[in-house]
Amino acid sequence: MNSVPPSPLSHAEIEELLGVYALDAVDRETAAIVEQHLDECIRCSIEVAEHHEVAGMLANSGGVPSAQVWDGIAGQLGGTSDESWDRLAAKLDGPGTSGPGRAGSGRPGKPPVDGNVVSLDQTRRRSRFVTAGAGLVAAAAAVVAVAFGVQANHLHTQVNALQATPQLSTAERVALAAPGTRRIVLTDPTHPGPATTPASIVLTASGTGFVVNDQRGGLARLPAGRTYQLWAVVGKKTISLGLLGSQPRIVPFSVAGSPGVSVFAITNEVAGGVVASANMAVAVGTVQL
Amino acid sequence: MDLEQASDANLVVAVGRWHEPALAEAYRRHGGAVHALARRILRSDPPAEEVTQEVFLDLWRNPEKFDAQRGTLRSFLLARTHGKSVDVVRSEEARKRREERTTREMATASYDIDREVWDMTVAEQVKEALGALPDDLRQPIELAYFGGRTYQEVAAMLDQPEGTVKSRIRSGLGRLRVNLIERGIEPAGAGL
After folding, report:
1. CA atoms of B180 and A50, how far apart (whole Å)
2. Do B100 and B129 belong to one domain?
3. Which residues in A lie closer than 8 A to residue B145 (C-beta atoms)?
């Protein structure tokens, strides 16, 4: 019999433990009670997953493990049982999938081409990287049409001046020092007179970039219920690169899976963002190829 | 299969088939963050490197423990890293060794520059968001997460009721999440 004993704690009591559980700040016995509850309670599982995501971000500090770390890992790689693969296959490949298994020759099998497994960018930015339909293309065309005074500059012409800027972040310095990184200046197409620069984009050669808000009167803080949204034009498609929040300073994004971005644009939208924008861009910049 | 373009879930599937380059790619993407967290908690490279190795070897041996429905691979790896690091911290013997250690060793190996830039950018935002929390919410999170303390220990250190610490950590994490979203950082999408 594998009957599970009832939890000694109520749902409300366990809810109070979710934060400290996510930070491993409970003893093993309490952790076991929480985990038993999580197996049965979707709502609490979601909350713990969210806490884990936030806690995981606390760890983001660009660590640099020594080369010996990977060497140590590689030296200990070995096979495990078929059972391991079977359980993994059931979870990730779906029912009916029969993989080559991990046993036998030990040679790596061909990774599956699985319709259920989404591409890098879909996974990476599932909530931020929305492919737009025809309506959005039209809207984006309108956005692009109002762009003027835009300019793009290669790193080597900008790096000295940028690196001398006191408020430049460490991340920007590292990015700008990398070969192939470009800085794209975004201008406000609605501003009368000389072009203003509310924000810029630093884009690395591999597709990671970030929006940098000009702190001297760039993208103003938006009221509650509004957010800035970043867009990119790739070929004839316009895609959302994600929400920038109501008071962005430096916001990372990735276009690694979508090479050939020709235009970046930022719009002011309702919180939560939109699939297709009907608003004028507040900042636009073209990427010189 | 172009591993650099593969999703994390696809990498784990490949790891499940003994595809060593897939594990190497997972390490390239997340090894820096894993090591940074371990080092932050353990305050020294040798034990942090041990934990980093254990985390990726665990992924190699038990890939089925990663459930894509419960979060990103990075979040999964960091949660495992934190648990293992806390185990080390709570080991009294290790605590003594750590206190006796006087030299700091700096890691010098390269880490994917693109990944590093991303992490640093996010780190700056997270640091600001954490700093924006009121002290009574921020302190217990820092003591528990980076100090490896139980909430009872945190309560004793701060001279607060245990229930208060539990509530403040929970609400602090919630506030931090909101702060990050306001800054344009979506926790669920932060891991490359």
Report:
1. 12
2. no
3. 23, 25, 55, 58
Q: How far apart are CA A155 and CA A246, in angstroms?
A: 29
The Cα of B130 is separated from the nearest Cα of chain A by a number of Å equal to 9
Token pair recorded at residue B19: 């595809």
pLDDT averaged per 10 residues, chain A (length 289): 68 94 90 89 86 80 62 68 44 36 33 30 30 34 31 30 42 66 83 74 78 74 87 85 82 75 90 84 84
CATH number at residue B155: 1.10.10.10
Spatial separation of the C-alpha atoms in residues A63 and B78, rounded to whole Å: 13
**Chain-chain contact of B120 with A174 (C-beta, under 8 angstroms):** yes
If one counts the domains in chain B, the total is 2
- Which residue has tokens 């172009």? B2
Cβ of A127 within 8 Å of Cβ of B186? The answer is yes
ipTM: 0.70
Domain span at residue B142?
112-192
Residues of B in contact with A109 (CB under 8 A): 17-19
Q: Is residue A60 helix, strand or coil?
A: coil
Q: Whole-angstrom Cα distance, residue A222 to residue A269?
A: 10
